[in-house]
Amino acid sequence: MSLHPSTPSGTAPDQVIANEPGNLSRLFSLDVLRGIALLGILVISIWEFGGFTSNEQTFFRQGTHGGNYKLLSIVSILFEGKMRALFALVFGAGIILFMQKKEHPAPLAAPDAYIRRQIWLIIFGVFNAFVLLWPGDILFQYGVVGILLFAFWRMPARGLLIAAILCTLIYCGKQYWNYADDKKDYKKFLAVTAVEKKFKQDSTARAKKDSFDRTKDTVLLKDTLAKNKLMDSLARKNDTLTKKQAGEKGRWEGMIKELKYDSSKTVAENKAIRASYGKVWKHLMQRSQNKESNWLYRTGVWDISSMMLLGMALLGFGFFNHRMASSRYLLIAVLALAIGFTLAWFRIHFQSIKLADYARYIEKYPVPFNQFFPIERMLLATGYASLVMLLLRSKFLDWLWQALAATGKMALTNYLMQTIICTFFFYGYGFGYFGRLQQWQLYFMVAEIALVQIVFSVFWLRYFTMGPLEWLWRCLIYRKWLPWKIKEPHAITDSPAL
User: Fold this and answer.
1) Alpha-carbon distances of 67 from 61, 71, 345, 400, 440, rounded to whole Å
2) 26: which strand partners?
3) What is the value of pTM for the model shown?
């Protein structure tokens, strides 16, 4: 029996799965890649869910570089940023597929349906961040950026590829911009310390002069002594930093402090997250607001747009429907993975140097450790996708691809399910395991959740055409109740997957 109910027995994985008459079909390969990305995202999300915070990671990065450091580095190289990039890649291809549909369940123009789709995705994102309390939510950002990219869907594939590269370069520029700001702060700090050094030298000189004057105890020098004391008092008042100088010094010292491991932060974070729902909500509120506002509009729009545009371009080039030769998929995979892993290794290496002594790093290196991270994630996401496309063509492990496709087809349901499971397990209003598991134990947790979601998705789609939240999303888009139970064993379905 096939693991995926929407794929008839004997259908090749690379074959396009048709849906309603006249509609553009969905691609099996996109469902598989979406499932892989969805489960891969949790490998990194579990850090924040489980209490393996950046502060805890700093402890291992600044330590003896033992087993925990090596495990952290391997996971960072393989997964950090890459699964989100792969998810955005698939989402971008889905934009064009949605817009090219010729028929909809309700008399509604494709652009109207698409905008409704994105608006409801934004609402799901707000619910995920502020009700389910997941500050790492991506639904809100995908909804916003998806609307911004609406005008690009008619652009030729080559133009989309150029736009994706430009967004990536701007993202790289943002990385350098932040580093340039740090360099400015460091220069200001050096200027302030130079002023403080001069104050110290002046104070020493005055102390020597006072000592010399006190040895003179004659009536003739009394007026001179009084005058010198007055001058010395005025000088001491001037030998203090201005409010601006104090702020410049404090800004740099605060930044350096943030780069160091602080056990008190871990204690405070554990206490805050192991608390009641109201206290956890209050603690995470600012973090969620920052992610869905400041981060999105300063960095996220370029981060997400670059990969969505690339996904749209690859669909146009026939990448996802096997219009390329196997040798080309292999070439793309080898080159992208080789260059991407090399950039990732250098990023980890230079990050350790930065954490050891950031002032020295700034003085020695012209670019930040993460300067080429946008290129790294783009290459590795593309390389992973190429490798999967190559394996799909070979029909190797067909049962696994069918299971992953079922998981990807229920992406929205499974994504929010991950939030519910993890917050209930780790947060204080649930089991309160936040900060209690070691790094390697968190990855076992990921494996368990992935297995549960794969099995759940496969069995659910034996009886329903789509996941429960995909069905709700679809009903909200078209403002009508839609059927979703399977009437025939191999019913052909379509759902607005992420």
Assistant:
1) 11, 6, 17, 31, 10
2) 17
3) 0.88
